[in-house]
Amino acid sequence: MAGASWTIAAQTHDRLGESPMWHPDHNALYWIDWYGPTLHRRIWGQDELRSWTIPDTSMIGSFVFASGGRLMLAVDSGLVLFDPETGTTSAFADPNGGRENVLYNDSKLDRFGRLWVGTFEVTETEPRGILHCVEADGSSSIGDSGFAVCNGPAFSPDGETMYFSDSAGRRILAYDVSRISRALKRRRVFAQFGDGEGLPDGLTVDAEGAVWCAHYGSGRVSRFAPDGRVLQSITLPCPVVTAPAFGGPDLTTLFVTTGWSPGVTRAADEPGPGGGVLALETGIRGLAEPVFAI
Question: What residue ranges define each of the domains in the chain, with the CATH number in brackets?
């Protein structure tokens, strides 16, 4: 995709846009501003943008879709169910247990209906982050631990491989996943990032099983084969790129969330598309994300 032509799908001037997710039933893209703490929605083919500022929290790490038209948000107090119709939240679980200086970050549902949510240490230097697995009844277990920043995750089309960004470690890890057990097995390095490649951030997997990763700080997304080979690397017109997702009616539009450039202190000072959602027609089909059946 040399000379890729990005368009601005939405310019919300998010300080740190994150967690793009396409809802096929709503025909809409959802995403968040981590610092907002704000949830956005744009319906395909419509100019209207709907945004919700989430009450009683200072941040939103990520979200997944939940049954009944709700969303499961990872906020500073734990996992909460958010109802867009009423604008209210209700507590669901807190696998982090309120640990000091540890907050929630990226999350995703696996193909078997379980929620995987990671945490990070606020200085992004101490290896106190944990990747948790949460069931629909609120019970949880630890999948892996010892990370400064947990990002990703994403799952292969058959659901049997998890990809996970160890951002501070500058690597993407892969694990074997089982329908019958929450235990992760055969941890291995899937891809290692070198100097000048930024940090591995959000992930998604397409219908061909290739893994897409946002390079935080180096303004690009890369597509990896299931064996870890780089198939494509596509430049974006801003350095802070956070997460990719496929959407649109055919799931062939790649959406990428972005944030303000380093050193920028307010939206008015951000040049170009930083803080918006960028879109690229790829001709490659993505996968629909599951809904948390609770």
Answer: 7-281 (2.120.10.30)
